[in-house]
Amino acid sequence: MIPETPIIWQQYHALLEHLPEMHTQYPIINGHFRRLDSGIAGEDNLEYHLHQAYIPSFQLIKRLRLEHHSSFQLDWIILTPGFRVILEVKNYTGIIYFDPKSNQLIREKDGITRTFDDPLLQVDRQYANLRTYLSDHEIQQLPVYRAAVFVNHHAILQLHDYPEHHRILTSQAVPAFLEKLSAKHSPAITEQQNRALVEFLQENHQERSISILEKHHILWEDLIKGVPCPHCQRRGMLRERMRWQCSYCGTRSNDAHLSMLYHLALLTGNRLTKKLVQEFLMLDSPEATRKLILRAGYIKFGESKQVYYSHPYLVQFFKSGQQMRKSGQQIQKSGQ
């Protein structure tokens, strides 16, 4: 399953919710989050234009991440019975041009020049990985086209002498690009086989997550504790008679703790301990903490001192080594 909001985005959001702004790592982490957020927004913004294309029987997958020897991610893949398209999305602003000799993208913005990896090299590498992945699972190969799409209307593309300029698109140009390809190709597989392939890829998506505190050298004691009030946002709500009470504005809530439990699940790799929850929710009783976790629907794993609790939705994203649910032969036979 591919989550609508990437797990790594949720992890960064959760960390920033609990990290004091004066912490030395805050600007760095916030910068990571802003770049991540910009990239995701760009991928999402392209969806409207993809649906404007008049192509029969096409399927879309966004942010597909597969693991095969190593991991690779496709911002967008369009699958039809006759051809496939991989799109690498960029949400850059400023003046953009490409240097074919250095294989770099160069951006000029606010008087500053920066270089980035050539997105066409990126999408071509993704294509090579996908081709190997499909071949190893005995899935029929179809023509695969690759392009880089600049989705921000504040980007000025200068492609005068770039030999691959036909593979550099704006989001508005994508529908016509796809329609031209559709006119060139007749179906090579059935619609049912195409849908089966989409299902196979989605089922074997491997969501990216990280040990975010370890990555940024954050200690648990660095983080802000206390349940936030849903009304005034101040922390430190008190648990009284099975409800949360804000000592600042008087707001009462039955479920103010749920968002904090979810944040802790993201920050721990979905392995909550009773001790950690009790500390961050500022509860007096270990038993009351245990009941609160279970009533929230968390799943208990382990025994005795090895017990931990996991959010049921997140289990699928934090477990590793998932097995293939279908074989390539099963996909090829679908619809026969």
Automatic annotation (TrEMBL):
Highest rank taxon of the organism: Bacteria
UniProt domain NERD: residue ranges: 38-153
InterPro entries in the cross-refs: NERD
Descriptive protein name: Nuclease-related domain-containing protein
Organism of provenance: Gracilibacillus orientalis
